[in-house]
Design a protein that fits this description.
Elements (H helix, E strand, L loop, with lengths): L11 H10 E11 L9 E11 L7 E3 L3 E7 L2 E2 L9 E3 L6 E10 L8 E5 L6 E5 L6 H4 L11 E8 L4 E4 L3 E6 L5 E5 L12 E4 L2 E7 L2 E7 L4 H26 L7 E7 L5 E2 L4 E5 L10 H19 L5 E2 L5 H19 L5 H17 L14 H6 L3 H18 L1 H15 L3 E2 L1 H12 L4 H8 L6 E5 L2 E5 L10 E10 L2 E11 L4 E3 L8 E4 L8 E3 L2 H10 L6 H16 L5 H14 L3 H15 L8 H15 L3 H14 L3 H10 L4 H13 L5 H10 L5 H11 L3 H14 L6 H10 L5 H17 L5 H10 L7 H12 L5 H21 L1
Parallel strand pairs: 1-10, 16-17, 17-19, 20-21, 22-28
Antiparallel strand pairs: 1-2, 2-7, 3-6, 4-5, 4-7, 8-9, 10-13, 11-14, 12-13, 15-16, 18-19, 22-23, 23-26, 24-25, 24-27
Helix pairs in contact: 3-4, 3-5, 4-5, 5-8, 6-8, 6-13, 6-15, 8-9, 9-10, 13-14, 14-15, 14-16, 15-17, 16-17, 17-19, 19-21, 20-21, 21-22, 21-23, 24-26, 25-27, 26-27
The structure holds zinc ion (ZN).
């Protein structure tokens, strides 16, 4: 046995060679989870039936952990040759059966498998999540996306557990030697990374909706939260399935569609027929609109993968961006078209799309499409370029060819490649054929070059430029023209334009007070309208008729802040003007988050209290409107400073534990920490993770000892789950107004990164990104740059560091 913790990363070349040699018919996988009730060992036996196109040739099977035994075609193999997660196979026959028994003892680190114990009731749950190549940690398999196969699962589990996998159980039997045996129906042909086994004493809800049996599962202690949200989860699931089935002209072929909420998992995973989610999205206090919208969007994203990813799978990880960008695009498309979240594009623009613009202007940017020489590099691509810029660019593609033809292309693509693998070229060919347009140049310019084009209006000329100096991309966009009236801005023109090259003459542009470039936000570009339009935009954005255009105004101001073209004060003015009257809840919450960032992180320390007070005045007024009260009070809890503010918060926090915690965080950050009050609130709060909120209060204190205490929880105890809890914790910890104190912790952050090892790459990358400092000094920038440049730094950490250096450089510039 070699060190099982350092498996070799499969290269594209190795994957191509293996895919050319073998074809997998099926896996019959027996998993025994019974030792996990008390212990740590996950036992598996994997029987693989496969054919070989060149009998006599050799290859290897992937398996990480202890290999107990292996037989190929009834001949026992010498397992001492197992090394670096690979078991070499002797010469193959035309038809082969390989049976490998293995044990995975690493079930506590969250690397592909996690066994967790609920802190409240001590019940044990086990989940698996394999993307990109974690399946080999659970059982022996040919772990690459283009070797798809039928999977038949049999799972032995403790008697009180239920087991949830891709397909429904065929039968559940009592075992003579204890526990129960769950035998599942065969899956369709699936890639190894989208199969799943989740188990534990789950609480299950099931309903028949729209011809599907929809299941929801969570741990027992979260039952009240799942029951609170179940109706909406069922409704959005039903709406999403119906939307995608119609748009893709492919029904979801299985009656059952399950969603399992599990502890201590980052994000969600699109396992076929059994999406696995972080249960932190079962919000422990009634969610705001933005939180509900986030859940709906993630739900639709994972669901879109049932078609794009699971039914038709990328051949290799170089198209992972397409997989993620498409699912993200499809989620917003479905949310806007088929659910109550009709302002989804406005929310996307004010939130994730701005993150994509920021990343795209810095050194961490990369072309959307990238070579991925081995699997480890695939994970470095999980960023704002992949998800958010990719999403915006697919939205632009739909505008470029029209929705009708885009849909026709998708239908051809799914029909032509169902249950197989495909590449970007296959997709673009299908959309190109359906639209009658050659998309080769479009593909190259949008996907193979980093950076954001700038579109500027000078008189009646639209100028386009690319940051790399190359030929600008073609943009299909709208230019809205507006005139000022006593009732606000009124639209008097809507010009549809397709740019070509650097200069486009706009012959039909009417005379107007405001020409809004990229009206409706159809393209991904930095837009600069003419000077007089800009003044109108900054001063009167609030009266633009459409939410997406108010979001566009805010986004343009933010883009100018990032590039040093507008001061933080001017941007805050524009934001507060919009936020004082904004009615679209999908714009209000991300807009408030931007205003808070402007007032704190992007402002000199001395100006922070004054600017927060201006924000507080806006949200105090909005707190009287029932629809916006929740979001307004949360923002007040970050910005309160007067006795009146705290009076309002304390009154509203009666019976609202979330707000009570937030108010306590704010008091602690102002030096008014009350240990007794924290303990009392933790005892009253029924949330099993109330201890995390108490960490947040300690984290916010302007005291080094307090920071030191919670620092250990984040980096070492594993008591702060990834995802929203970690992000919330980081926000409490990195208070920009505590700049003097925070600089030394920013340096400690780099110490931690230097010491990172032995964890899953994704887990490491998630931590590095979640805990990114919000302030620093020049020495930190230099050191972080050196660390990013070091050869030993893994790609996902490098990209996080480069992003941090770029953002904080812009922040420091804006503050002076
Ligand atoms: Zn995804």
């Amino acid at each position: 046995m070699t060190d099982p913790s350092s498996p070799a990363s499969l290269t594209e070349e190795e994957a191509r060679t293996r895919a050319a040699l073998i074809e997998i018919e099926r896996y019959d996988i027996s998993v025994d989870l019974r030792q996990l009730l008390e212990g740590e060992r996950w036992l598996a036996s994997s029987s693989v039936s496969f054919t070989c196109r060149r009998p006599g040739a050799t290859t290897f099977v992937d398996v990480v952990g202890e290999v107990v035994s292996a037989r190929l075609n009834d001949v026992e193999l010498d397992v001492s040759s197992h090394a670096a997660g690979r078991l070499p196979l002797p010469p193959l026959e035309a038809d082969n059966t390989l049976v490998v028994s293995s044990v995975q003892a690493d079930t506590g680190s969250g690397n592909a498998i996690l066994r967790t114990v609920d802190p409240q009731d001590k019940l044990v749950y086990v989940w698996s999540s394999f993307e990109p190549d974690g399946a080999k940690r659970a059982w022996a398999c040919f772990d690459q996306p283009d070797l798809k196969a039928v999977h038949g699962f049999q799972v032995s589990a403790p008697a009180e557990w239920s087991v949830v996998s891709n397909c429904p159980p065929e039968v559940v039997l009592d075992r003579d030697d204890g526990g129960r045996l769950w035998v599942f129906e065969d899956t369709p042909r699936l890639s190894t990374y989208v199969v799943v086994v989740n188990a534990g004493p789950f609480h299950e809800l099931r309903e028949q909706r729209g011809g599907h049996s929809l299941g929801l599962h969570c741990r027992q202690s979260l039952r009240p939260y799942l029951e609170r949200d179940a109706e909406e989860l069922f409704r959005v699931t039903e709406q999403g399935l119906a939307f995608f089935e119609e748009r893709f002209a492919q029904p979801f072929p299985q009656e059952r569609f399950d969603q399992v909420f599990v502890p201590d998992m980052g994000g969600a995973m699109e396992n076929w027929g059994c999406v696995t989610w972080s249960d932190s999205v079962l919000w422990r206090t009634p969610p705001t609109y933005a939180q509900r919208q986030l859940v709906a969007t993630v739900l639709l994203h994972e669901m879109a993968h049932m078609w794009f990813g699971d039914l038709v799978t990328m051949r290799w990880w170089d198209d992972i961006w397409l997989n993620e960008a498409f699912a993200s695009f499809a989620a917003t498309w479905a949310a806007v078209s088929a659910t109550e979240y009709a302002d989804g594009w406005a929310s996307f623009l004010t939130g994730r799309q701005l993150s994509a613009y920021l990343m795209d202007m810095g050194p961490a940017s990369h072309p959307i499409r990238n070579p991925v020489p081995d699997v480890d590099h695939a994970m470095a691509s999980f960023d704002h370029i992949t998800y958010a810029k990719g999403q915006a660019v697919l939205h632009q593609l739909m505008a470029y060819v029209t929705e009708e033809r885009f849909v026709e292309g998708l239908r051809r693509y799914f029909a032509g490649h169902a249950w197989g693998n495909a590449t970007l070229a296959d997709l673009m060919r299908a959309i190109g054929d359906a639209s009658g347009r050659d998309l080769a140049a479009w593909t190259e310019s949008w996907l193979d070059r980093a950076g954001t084009d700038t579109l500027s209006l000078v008189g009646t000329t639209l100028l386009a430029s690319s940051p790399d100096g190359g030929e600008p991309r073609r943009h299909a966009l709208r230019i809205g023209s507006y005139t000022r009236t006593p009732a606000g801005l009124e639209q008097i023109g809507d010009l549809r334009v397709e740019t070509a090259g650097t200069t486009t003459q706009l012959l039909d542009l009417p005379v107007a007070d405001l020409h809004l470039l990229n009206d409706g936000d159809l393209t991904f570009a930095s837009v600069r309208t003419d000077e007089s339009s800009l003044q109108t935009l900054l001063a009167h954005a609030a009266s633009l008729p459409e939410p997406v255009n108010r979001a566009l105004a805010v986004g343009t101001a933010w883009d100018m802040l990032l590039k040093g073209e507008l001061s933080t004060g001017d941007v805050l003015d524009c934001l507060l003007n919009v936020l004082a009257s904004e009615q679209s809840p999908g714009v209000v919450e991300p807009g408030l988050a931007l205003a808070l960032q402007a007032a704190e992180q992007w402002s000199p320390t001395v100006l922070i209290p004054r600017r927060l007070a201006r924000l507080a005045a806006v949200v105090v007024a909005r707190a009287d409107e029932p629809e916006h009260r929740h979001a307004a009070l949360r923002t007040l809890a970050w910005s309160a400073s007067t006795p009146e503010h705290f009076e309002l918060l304390d009154a509203a926090a009666e019976g609202d534990f979330d707000l009570a915690w937030r108010t306590m965080v704010r008091r602690a950050s102002l030096g008014r920490y009350d240990e007794g009050a924290v303990q009392a609130l933790a005892e009253q709060d029924p949330n099993p993770e109330a201890y995390l909120r108490a960490y947040g209060v300690v984290a916010a204190r302007p005291v080094a000892e307090a920071k030191a205490e919670v620092w250990e929880h984040f980096w070492r105890d594993r008591t702060i789950p990834a995802g929203p809890p970690a992000q919330e914790f980081a926000k409490c910890f990195w208070r920009p107004v505590q700049h003097e104190l925070m600089v030394s912790w920013a340096h400690r952050y780099l110490d931690e990164i230097e010491a990172l090892s032995g964890e899953g790459l994704l887990a490491a990358g998630t931590k590095v990104r979640a805990m990114q400092p919000t302030t620093c000094d020049q020495a930190w920038l230099d050191r972080a740059q050196d660390l990013a440049d070091a050869e030993s730094t893994i790609p996902i950490v490098r990209s996080g560091l480069l992003q941090a250096v770029d953002t904080l450089t812009r922040v420091l510039d804006a503050r002076t």
